[in-house]
Design goal:
The chain contains four helices and no strands. It is mostly helical and about 90 residues long. The chain has helices spanning about 5-20, 20-30, 35-75, 85.
Length: about 90
Amino acid sequence: LNQSEPLRINLFILATITLLGYPLWCESVTGDVATTTSLIGSTVSGVGSAALFWRERTRRSNQLNRMEKELNAERLEVRIPVNTAISSA
């Protein structure tokens, strides 16, 4: 289990929120009004970051589901059916 995956997931969601929220906080943080170029750039970057977040989240979910199935399979019992044809021979 790779422990850097949760970090990447959190970084991508943080970048997504920050970039998509850029028009809201730009003037109060930088003192400048957001230009059209910066708005387009932050929106495109935010959507790209959201796509990376979704990809990493999906991979992590699939990996955890696979591991859970493997762990559940370890607890399965093997039962050999009693076959009357074999036992009567």
